[in-house]
Structures are given as C-alpha cells and as structure tokens.
Amino acid sequence: MQDLYVVTHPHAEHTAQDIVGGWHNSVLTPAGRRDAELIAEELKRRRTGTSRPIRITSSDLERCAETSAIIARTLDVPATTDSRLREISFGEAEGRPNSWLAQRQVPAPDNNRLDHRDPVAGAETRRDIASRVGECIRELMTELDHDHIVVTHGFAHTFVVSAWLQIPVEATGFTNFATTPGAITHLQHDDYWRNRTLAQLADTTHLACGTMA
Q1: b/e burial code for range 148-184 (CB count within 10 A of at least 16 → b)
Q2: CB burial of residue 71 (10 Å; 0-12, 13-18, 19+)
Q3: Number of Cβ within a 10 Å radius of residue 63
Q4: What percent of the residues of the chain are helix, what percent strand, and what percent coil, each to the nearest 5?
Q5: Four-CA torsion 56, 154, 202, 67, nearest 10 degrees
Q6: Phi, psi of 19 (to 5 degrees)
Q7: What are 104-154's pLDDT values in tens digits?
Q8: Angle at Cα 65 formed by Cα 62 and Cα 71, nearest 5°?
Q9: How many CB atoms lie within 10 A of CB 121?
Q10: pLDDT digits (tens, 9 = 90+) for 22-47
Q11: How far apart are CA 71 and CA 19, in angstroms?
Q12: For residue 188, with 0-12 CB atoms within 10 Å meaning exposed, 13-18 middle and 19 or more buried, which class applies?
C-alpha cells in the first residue's frame, strides 16, 4: 500500500493581514509555525512501524517551504520544492487587500469553468492550475517505491487530490476537495487491486493538541 499525505500549509501572514495570497510570498505566522510542528509530529506518528522510504515535495512559496522544512527535520528526510504546486495566481491582485480583489472578481459561468479568466491582469484560470499541479502529481505517481508528502495550498489541494485519483483535467470544472490551513489529506494506492482511495479528507484533529497546550 502506497500512502500520499497532502498537507495544506498552516496560518500565514497574508491571511492575518487580510491580503490576497496566490503567488504572494508570505511566511507562516507564529501560530502557523506551531501548527507545522504539530503536523510533523502527526505524520511521524502515522509512519511509526513503516520502513517504506518517503519523499517530501512542496510548493516553492515560503509558507509551504517553511512547513515542509519542519516536517523534513522531524522525519529526518530531505524535502524538495516544485513551483508547479503553487497556489493559483491572482495576478496583479496579489499582495493587495482582499476587498480590492472582491470588487473585481467575476464568478466563472457554468459553461466555462475551466477557461474563465478574471478581469484581473495576470490571473490564472482553473485549467492553468489543474494542468500544472496535475503534471507534478503524475510524475510523483510513477515513484511507486516511495510514500509521499505533498505540501501545497488550499485551492491547489483540490487538484493534487483529483490528479491522484486520475480525474482528467477536463472533468475538474466543478471539482472541490475542501480543506483548511494545516489539514492533512490521506490518499492510498492499493498495490494489488490498483485502487486509489481518498482515505481521509482534510483532517485537523492533530491541531487540537496545540489548542489544549
């Protein structure tokens, strides 16, 4: 059985400041760094008794790279970054107040979910992010001798999961695997039957330890 754990980075400064994230390169808040430690300990616990090697791949944006570095230190394995795991780009809205984007953003129509482009200059489409994230995950799927940890962002998370489940990009127009900061999604690949299972979606029970501390 091959395991893939998808981690959405915990609380970051752009959220605390109520500004648009996307490719804006904010760092974790102190609370986010605490939660990253809790995520790392939870992943270490889940891997107790497992000898299978593991690979950590993260978005190259600082809030994810910082999270993956904490996980890598706890698990004593290296982590690499891949820009294809970045959040969707909001173009010129990034780093601006969320209210600025809300005044300009236009919801995608039902007949053009994948290729709808916001009037905000430089913003990506849903197809753009689904294609690049999917390309990265399909490459990781060829490494059957490893388990994997992927550290990414809230919206990008959907396309990590859909690519793992081998849902074609063309079928992701309405797909949404909702998550929250610091959550862990557990995906499994059955070596015998070859099934791909969404074993657990966006679990945050490990973060309760920090709340009670």
Answers
A1: bbbbbbbbbbbbbbbbbeebebeebbebebebebbbb
A2: buried
A3: 28
A4: 40, 20, 40
A5: 40
A6: -120, 165
A7: 999 999 999 999 988 899 999 999 999 999 999 999 999 999 999 999 999
A8: 145
A9: 9
A10: 999 999 999 999 999 999 999 999 99
A11: 27
A12: middle
> What would the two tokens of residue 197 be?
């299972």
Instruction: Decide: 7 and 58 in contact? Cβ < 8 Å.
Output: no
Q: Which amino acid is at 118?
A: D
One-letter amino acid identity for 213? A
Mean pLDDT, rounded, for 55-68: 98
| Summary mean pLDDT of the chain | 96
Reported as half-sphere exposure (CB side, CA atoms, 13 A), residue 130 has a value of 21
202: three-class secondary structure by DSSP: strand
Which of these, 52, 34, 73, 68, lies nearest to 206 by C-alpha position?
34
